[in-house]
Structure formats: C-alpha cells, structure tokens
Design a protein that fits this description.
alpha+beta, 4-stranded mixed beta sheet, 3-stranded antiparallel beta sheet, 7 helices, 48% helix
Length: 258
C-alpha cells in the first residue's frame, strides 16, 4: 500500500485499527445483508444451529489520510526495531493511524498503551506469586479433620494462608521488578531489591527465633523429667522400718516350707 510518495510495508499496515464496518458490496448468492452483516444458513437445524453471520471491518475509505510512525528506508516505511539493554530485548516502534494525528498525541497514545500492558503484567505476576506461595499452606488443611480445630476456628485455614502469603508474594514481585529496573533505573530498582531482601530477612529471623524458643523449651523438659523418676525413696525406707529386706523382682513372697 502507498501513502503519498511512501510505500507502507506489511508489518506497519497491520497496526492500522480496523474500526469501520464494510458493507458496501452486494451479498453473494445464498446470502442476505442485514445491518452490516451477511447471513446464511446451512441445513435446517433447530435453535439456530447452522446459521452463519459474517462481518467485515476495515478503514474508512472516504478518509484516505493516514499518519505513519516508523522507519523510512529509501521511501519504504516500516516498523523500527532497536536492540535494547538486558533484559528488555528488542524495542519495536511503529504505528499507523487513520486521519491526521499530531506527533505528540501519537507518541502519548503509544506510551499509554505500553504502560497499561506493563501494569497488567505486573499485576498478573503478583497474583501468580501470591497463589504459588499460598499453595505451600495446603497441608494445613489436614487440621480441618480435627474436631477441636473446627470448633475453635471453623474454616479459616484458607483465610490464614491467604493472609500469610501476601507479604512473601509482594516481596517476590518487587524483587523481580527491582532486578529488572536496576539495569535501566537504579534509583528505583535498588530500593525495591533492598525492600524485598528486608521482608525475607524479617521472615527468616522470625522463623529462627521461633525454632530457638522451641529448642530451649524442649531442653528444659528433658532436664526436669529424670529428677521426677529418681526421687522415689519410699520403698527402701518403708522396708527398713518394718525390718524386712526389699525383695527383688523375681522373688515370690510366702511362708517357708520345711
């Protein structure tokens, strides 16, 4: 396709929005045109099964003016590809819009679309991290079979897992975003990485303190139990007072036989 003295390449033409219904040609045999659609039916099945509807969309032929943004290569305009820094990959710049569009407006529209896609991907990544970490609490559902647990807490296991995995999921998301931003925007990427490391360090410290208290309590229990077993002198003293010798485990008490 040509726009004035320039030839528009196929990759750039595919960026042109097709927002105009095309119904200017006559319907072929066996088809009918209704409200911008071409309809026909195959067979006579009930409930509309076999009905076919076709709608064509294109650009407005009455306004052939277009605005192109791309790379001019000797009269041929196409998408501009440029290698970016790690890990961004290749940047592709190019757009084709119907009518006359100002340069600033065109760049602003393209930037807004890129930002929207970026935030959608960030949100999806956060949800996936949150869901994955929450799956680690699935074994706790065994407690649902405990009657005491069910009476006290009901079915709050999923709620507890969802709340407990929120901070790790947020930290993982900020960590990934921070690592990617460190190469291009260190002023933003480095604080995000440090914030992620702080959250995981706090979780690790809390777990270590919990295990330390549990080990200390277990050690005290082992020191107290032997004292309770050894402090039982009643048997020997009672035998001395009655003038009898304590018998061994295998001896049987009874009258002497002559």
């Amino acid at each position: 396709a040509k726009a004035g003295a320039f030839h528009l390449e196929g990759d750039l033409l595919r960026t042109l929005p097709l927002d105009t219904v095309v119904d200017s040609f006559a319907a072929p045999a066996g088809w009918t045109r209704e409200g911008g659609e071409y309809r026909t039916s195959v067979g006579a099945a009930p409930n509309g099964i076999g009905n076919i509807r076709v709608r064509f969309r294109g650009n407005d032929a009455t306004a052939p003016v277009v605005t192109a943004l791309g790379e001019n290569r000797a009269g041929r305009v196409g998408l501009l590809s440029e290698e970016g820094d790690w890990p961004c990959g290749t940047h592709v710049v190019g757009a084709l819009r119907a009518g006359h569009v100002a340069r600033d407006e065109l760049f602003h529209t393209e930037e807004a679309g890129s930002i929207a896609v970026t935030w959608v991907l960030r949100f999806v990544g956060f949800v996936l991290f949150w869901f994955a970490i929450g799956r680690a609490f699935v074994p706790l559902r065994i407690a649902e079979h405990c009657r005491l647990w069910c009476r006290c807490c009901g079915s709050t296991i999923d709620a507890i897992a969802c709340s407990a995995s929120f901070c790790p999921g947020c930290a993982c998301t900020l960590g990934v975003v921070g690592v990617l931003w460190t190469t291009t925007h260190p002023a933003v990427g480095v604080p995000l990485v440090l914030f992620c490391a702080t959250i995981f360090l706090a979780l690790f410290t809390s777990e270590c303190q919990k295990r330390g208290r549990h080990h200390h309590h277990h050690s005290q229990s082992e020191d107290v139990e032997p004292q309770k077993v050894q402090s039982d002198p009643g048997g020997a003293d009672a035998a001395k007072e009655s003038g009898k010798q304590p018998s061994s485990c295998g001896d049987n008490e009874g009258p002497d036989v002559v």
